[in-house]
Design a protein that fits this description.
By secondary structure, this protein is mainly α. It has helices at 9-61, 68-104, 110-130, 135-181, 186-196, 201-213, 218-228, 232-247, 251-275, 277-300, 302-310, 312-336.
């Protein structure tokens, strides 16, 4: 009896699964080739440099022998350079987390963030394993969640703090202009803003006043403020104050012009946000639709969609689908967000 190939919906499903798996495997293979190719290229370049140096030493000596002491010293220097490079990479990652905490306004150590990341990754991995996923997929997704979710939370908190600062900053500049025109010293105007305006604007101006009382230079105070609130509006304000301190001039008039610029930027930002609201709504609907459909299908027929969590092939398809969904959401976010 001759067996026939599967036809109809089963054949289409098999082809879809096979195509998804093959494409994902191809992308992973290309990424691995690029990574290992770059590493091998660097090793080859380093060997060529060592051989070139050894050849130069042998040619200078005339006997084809390199100095053993020089070669040993060169290897020690290369090892020290590798250690220093690795230390700088770790330091950059640690400093980036510190910068995120500073911009989010959180007084939390890096160790606590690492502990939160470990707990988050563990909970996600255990939850996915409890849903029936394989240990490998559960561990990988838990690792991604542990690395990504805390950083994402810090980025969101920092973004909200910057938006609150930008929304209130023009009012702070207006208060400063009116205070200077009424004859108050600039230090007293900054103190009034720190007392009267809500955080984070009031907090930043209080830090400015406290720093001036301690005798710190205005340049250092502004630099630290920009590390906490890296916005274009605050950068404009810092530049205006530094130029006025060095060259003099009518500070009230300059700050009034800055206030006008800040309000015009806010109007333009609101206008762009209103014009792009339809695109952002469409992106939100498109991004959430697969998850909503999956939820309703699970409520109606748990066995139908349960294969994605219990079967190994289903785990692979689910992981690939989430990967491409994340890529699509990132692209749509970049398309509908405009920087003014």
């Amino acid at each position: 009896m001759v067996e026939t190939a599967p036809t109809g919906p089963d054949a289409g499903l098999v082809m879809l699964i096979a195509g998804t798996v093959l494409f994902s495997a191809f992308m992973l293979l290309m990424a691995a080739l690029v990574a290992f190719g770059g590493r091998n290229a660097r090793r080859l370049q380093k060997r060529r440099e060592m051989l070139g140096l050894a050849g130069k030493g042998g040619a200078g000596k005339g006997a084809g022998r390199a100095d053993p002491g020089a070669a040993r010293q060169r290897r020690i220097q290369e090892k020290l350079l590798e250690l220093e490079t690795s230390k700088q990479k770790r330091s950059r990652r640690r400093n980036q987390i510190k910068a995120d905490l500073l911009q989010a306004g959180l007084d939390v150590s890096v160790g606590k963030v690492a502990l939160a990341a470990f707990i988050c990754g563990t909970l996600v991995g255990v939850a996915l394993f409890g849903l029936g996923m394989s240990p490998l997929v559960s561990g990988l997704l838990g690792l991604v969640a542990g690395f990504g979710l805390p950083r994402l939370a810090l980025k969101i908190m920092a973004g909200r703090r910057r938006k609150k600062f930008t929304a209130e900053f023009a009012n702070a500049v207006d208060v400063l202009v009116r205070g200077i025109r009424s004859g108050l010293p600039i230090g007293e105007c900054l103190a009034i803003i720190g007392r009267e305006l809500p955080d984070p604007v009031g907090e930043e101006f209080r830090l400015l006043v406290e720093g001036q009382k301690l005798g710190m230079a205005l340049d250092d105070l502004m630099r630290r403020g920009l590390e906490r609130v890296p916005t274009a509006e605050y950068r404009f304000f810092a530049i205006v104050l530094q130029i006025q301190q060095q060259t003099g001039g009518n500070l009230a008039e300059t700050l009034e012009g800055l206030s006008t610029v800040l309000r015009d930027r806010k109007k333009m930002r609101d206008k762009v946000r209103a014009l792009s609201s339809e695109a952002r709504s469409s992106a939100a609907i498109i991004g959430s639709l697969p998850f909503l459909v999956s939820f309703f299908v699970y409520m109606l027929s748990p066995e139908y969609i349960g294969l994605l969590f219990t079967d190994r092939v289903g785990n692979i398809i689910l992981a690939c689908g989430l990967l491409w969904m994340a890529l699509g959401v990132a692209v749509m976010t970049k398309m509908v967000n405009f920087k003014i």
